[in-house]
Amino acid sequence: MLTIEDINNIIGGNLVDAKNKESNEINDFETIYHFVKSKKTAYFSPNRETWAKELGRNKNALDGNELVDKEHVEIGLIITEKYISDLKYKTPQIIVKDSIKAFKSLAIYIRSQYKNPLIAITGSMGKSSTRMIITSLLKDYKVLENRGNNNVRAAIYTNMLKLIKNPDYAVIETSMNAINYLENTAVYLKPDIAIITGIGEAHFSTFKSIEDIAKIKSRIFEGLSKNGIAIINNDTLFADYLVDRAKLNTSNVFTYSINIDSKADFIINEIIYGKGHIEINLEDENGEVDNYRVNTISEGMVANTLASILTLRKLNIPIKKELLENFRPFSKVLAIKNIKTKSHELTLLDDTHNASLPAMVNAIRAFNSQAEFYAGNKIIAIGKINDLGHKSTEIHLRLINELEKSKADYILCKDPELKTVVNKIKNKKATWYPNKELLINDLKYLCNKDSFTLLKSSSGGTDFPELAKNLPNVLQNFKLENSTSDIF
């Protein structure tokens, strides 16, 4: 717990409008005003110029003071660079010269007072799902985690401030933005367990090579103490490099793998694919095999599950199978959607949450694992992988082998980056579309009775996610009357 006076002493500001309120308790912090709901919550008001310069905040974003409801009574403290003079209710304000400096110094102080385990997760793919699985397995405890998938520098410092709530565990995912060469927040976050879920082809608009990405991701280990724990996906690119980097900070380095022949510390015994789910067999600490059901269809999510189970074992917390079985990822992460049209039923597999090359490959393989359970057309419809910069053509071409080996009857591609891919695919019915309307129109006819369709793309840089959003409604209002055998 901190009082308003304590906070002022830590950040060194000018406390005003706080007569007889200096000892009021503050137990939460927000930088987004509409989340302020309590007189025990302090609002860090983002100064437009300062925050844009220091944290990359959108320069067109409103100044934090402009967002304050002048008649709002349920607020305990405002920390700002400019005094707000026209509040209806006198709310204590701390006026600081530099709100970023105050923001960071208070976050670092609160982190130093927090003594419970903190888990940090990064990776080119799987970090959000791994964080969510770990949090689900910790359902019996009070857990602090990211809001949504907000994982940039400002979000890391905000979550450090929220450690004032003293949760039993904190599970924080971090992006490249939070551990890059501009600033490595991991050294302030100081995780007790640091996890890297994978290194993949992404962010090439910012970084020159995948080696650079591995170097950046490994910076998460710089926050570990000598007693800290590093957990690394042994199946990823540059796994050996990541292990070496982790060992510079701790001797407690553990690897996991979904490859039964792997020499990783924690491996899977068996993967059994069912319709809409996977069962995995793992050895427990006593060498006995245990069975777990996961409501996922991808090897990537199985790998995320291994990372999560290994994390709980290192925390000496038993795994409750029902918590794992009941876990659901984001709504657009390999989400199986059963659609009833005016003439038949079909299934869509929506994975438009985001994409890197490994995530795209993972989605295609997940599609393959389920294709046998459907009697209708098997369709892969994909949009571009965003943020590939100068390597975009090269990386998209790497999809050809996976698409040719896939169990798809039809491959439908959108976005200019995939036009060359379609031209090079052999022995498959593959077509490129210049816009989503033409693609949707063909999908209406191809999605026949008991068909199975993968929808996969990045969440940004393409309007393919709009297609995925609109397609269910289009299909529900469509009646299939003619054969689709000659549509190509």
Walkthrough of the structure:
By secondary structure, the chain is of the alpha/beta class. It is about 30% helix and about 20% strand. The protein is built from 17 helices and 23 strands. It has helices at about 5-10, 50-55, 100-115, 125-135, 155-160, 175-180, 185-190, 210-220, 240-245, 300-315, 320-325, 355-370, 390-395, 400-405, 420-425, 435-445, 465-475; strands at about 1-5, 15, 25, 30, 40-45, 75-80, 95, 120, 145, 170-175, 195, 230-235, 250-255, 265, 270-275, 275-285, 290-295, 335-340, 345-350, 380, 410-415, 430-435, 450-455. α3 (about 100-115) packs across α5 (about 155-160) and α16 (about 435-445) packs across α17 (about 465-475). It is globular and about 80 Å long.
Entry summary:
The chain is α/β, with parallel strands linked by helices and 488 residues long. It is 32% helix and 21% strand.
Considering the chains and any ligands shown, give keywords for the structure:
seven-stranded parallel sheet, 488 residues, 21% strand
3D shape: globular
Number of helices: 17
DSSP E strands, number: 23
Question: Uncertain regions: pLDDT < 50 for 5+ in a row?
Answer: none
Could you give the distance between the termini?
A: 67 Å
Let me know the average pLDDT: 92
Helix content: 25-40%
Strand content: 15-25%
Biggest sheet strand line-up: 9-10-8-11-12-13-14
Helix and strand composition category? alpha/beta
- The rounded Rg comes to 25 Å
Major sheet details: 7 strands, parallel
